[in-house]
């Protein structure tokens, strides 16, 4: 670091202070942190960046967020010591003998807005007096994710701020708005990949809130900006998950579910009843039943997740368990590592089966 220019990113973004010898307590609180290259680039960019520390949902971990990405802070203990010295008139004195340091690692995120948002059905702008509601600042403080990831979650879960507080569109209301959008495109003979918001609102009129219409339009669009392009697979997936969620404890006939799913999806997307769209959301139960089993109810701790999965089923087809593992990793290499650590593979009738490496009681 001695060859770096004086005005480097660390001097600009971190307060440096000399610690007097008598202040031993403060010296003991010094923690060294290994900063990865992508965060260095973020801090040294043309636009001044900032880092935010937040608690995980369970309070057991600390995450570090840039404006667009979330990292886990992990304490690493090592056999060798890292020595931190401070300059003195006649040389240097030892300030810290560090046996550990903080490592910053990429992590998968899970954003839960359900408990922070009150349903908006298109009618009731107010909420009951005894209902806890949250402002944008409060939502961000309670969500262990970056601002960009939180903003994307607002769109995915169709949440918006009404009178300053977070609200979530009900399924029926969002479906109603979606039908208005599709009807407009059909009536005006506009391609579904060339939708303009202003023209859409002129057709719908003032009966619906502009922010609600734009939210639904962005939720089901392949593009983030105009012209918006409706994604039929996204619509089919959203409807399929909603219908499945009604069968948490009692399975439904597979054929009955597919027919109900097909009849609910609006034209021209009713043929998109592909079970692959619902990966990580269901269990197939022999001989011909399907049941809701969403990945987001499982723990984020890998050991606990595998324990839950093998309590549900002692044996899994590899293709069936993968959707429940990918949410724990940031890339496929880490998925393979998790499978090697927690499972054993077997081949049965030319299919790859995984069983628990350990037996949990």
Number of helices: 13
Counting copies of identical and different chains, the oligomeric state is single chain
Please report the distance between the alpha carbons of the first and last residues: 51 Å
Class based on secondary structure composition and strand pairing: alpha+beta
Summarize the helix and strand pattern as letters: HHEHEEEEEHHEEHHHHEHEEHEHHEE
Overall form: globular
Low-confidence stretches: 1-23
Strand order of the largest sheet: 1-5-4-3-2
Residue-averaged pLDDT, rounded? 89
Number of domains: 4
Q: How many beta-strand segments? A: 14
* Beta-strand content: 15-25%
Radius of gyration: 26 Å
Question: What portion of residues is helical?
Answer: 25-40%
- Sheet bearing the most strands, described? 5 strands, mixed
Please give a quick description of this structure.
The chain has 361 residues and is α+β, with helices and mostly antiparallel strands. It has helices at 9-13, 24-28, 37-43, 136-142, 147-156, 171-187, 197-204, 210-219, 232-244, 254-264, 302-312, 318-321, 332-342, and strands spanning 33-34, 52-55, 62-65, 70-88, 91-106, 118-120, 159-162, 165-169, 252-253, 282-285, 289-292, 315-317, 343-348, 351-356.
């Amino acid at each position: 670091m001695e060859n770096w220019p004086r005005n480097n990113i660390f001097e600009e973004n971190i307060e440096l202070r000399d610690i007097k010898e008598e202040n031993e307590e403060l010296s003991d609180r010094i923690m060294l942190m290994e900063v990865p290259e992508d965060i260095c680039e973020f801090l040294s960019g043309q636009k001044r960046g900032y880092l935010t520390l937040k608690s995980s949902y369970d309070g057991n971990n600390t995450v570090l967020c840039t404006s667009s990405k979330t990292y886990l802070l992990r304490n690493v203990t090592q056999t060798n010591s890292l020595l931190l010295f401070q300059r003195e008139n006649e040389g240097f004195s030892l300030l810290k003998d560090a046996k550990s340091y903080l490592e910053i690692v990429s992590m998968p995120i899970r954003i839960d807005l359900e408990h922070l948002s009150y349903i908006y059905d298109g009618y009731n702008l107010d909420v009951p007096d005894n209902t806890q509601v949250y402002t944008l600042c409060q939502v961000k403080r309670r969500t262990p994710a970056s601002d960009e990831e939180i903003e994307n979650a607002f769109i995915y879960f169709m949440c918006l701020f009404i009178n300053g507080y977070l609200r979530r569109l009900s399924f029926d209301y969002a479906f109603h708005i979606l039908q208005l959008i599709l009807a407009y495109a059909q009536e005006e003979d506009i391609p579904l990949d060339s939708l303009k918001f202003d023209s859409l609102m002129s057709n719908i009129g003032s009966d619906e809130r502009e922010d609600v219409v734009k939210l639904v339009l962005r939720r089901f669009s392949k593009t983030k900006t105009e012209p918006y392009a409706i994604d039929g697979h996204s619509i089919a997936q959203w409807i399929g998950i909603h219908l499945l969620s009604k069968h948490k404890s009692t399975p439904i006939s597979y054929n009955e579910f597919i027919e109900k799913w097909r009849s609910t999806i609006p034209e021209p997307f009713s043929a998109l009843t592909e079970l692959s769209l619902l990966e990580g959301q269901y269990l197939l139960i022999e001989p011909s039943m399907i049941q809701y089993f969403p990945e987001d109810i499982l723990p984020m701790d890998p050991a606990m997740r595998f324990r839950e999965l093998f309590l549900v089923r002692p044996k899994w087809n590899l293709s069936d368990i993968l959707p429940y593992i990918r949410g724990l990793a940031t890339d496929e290499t880490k998925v393979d590592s998790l499978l090697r650590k927690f499972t054993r593979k077997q081949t049965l009738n030319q299919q790859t089966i995984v069983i628990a490496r350990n037996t949990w009681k």
